Amino acid sequence: MKEMVQEGNGFAMKIDGHVVAEITFVPQGEALVITHTFVSEVLRGRKIGEELVSRVVSHARENNKKIVPACSFAHALFRRKKEYQDLWVREEE
């Protein structure tokens, strides 16, 4: 059975109770810093990483937070998704 659950500062996809994909974030003031995204090799290419980032985006919107996409996957997704631009806090370059 596949399920998506919130676990502390992140979300995990579980299949039969085993974590097969996850995303973690750290609250930092008015923002959530996405620090890590992982998808099991056997599930890659199925847009599960995008689903995880979308969960964090929804969580941020519900809690009036912005997002710092610090992990490379989330950063690349934020660059492509126009609908995320209003939440994106760009780190100093």
UniProtKB/TrEMBL annotation:
Pfam families: Acetyltransf_CG (PF14542)
Coiled-coil regions listed: none
Keyword DNA repair part of the UniProt annotation: no
Residue ranges of every copy of the N-acetyltransferase domain listed in the record: 1-93, 3-89
GO molecular function per UniProt: acyltransferase activity, transferring groups other than amino-acyl groups
PROSITE patterns: GNAT, GNAT_YJDJ
Classification via CDD domains: NAT_SF
InterPro entries linked: Acyl_CoA_acyltransferase (IPR016181), Gcn5-rel_NAT (IPR045057), GNAT_dom (IPR000182), GNAT_YJDJ (IPR031165)
Matches recorded under SUPFAM superfamilies: Acyl-CoA N-acyltransferases (Nat)
Entry keyword set: Transferase
Protein origin, superkingdom: Bacteria
Family matches, as PANTHER family: BSR4717 PROTEIN, PROTEIN NATD1
Record protein name field: GNAT family N-acetyltransferase
Species of provenance: Paenibacillus lutrae
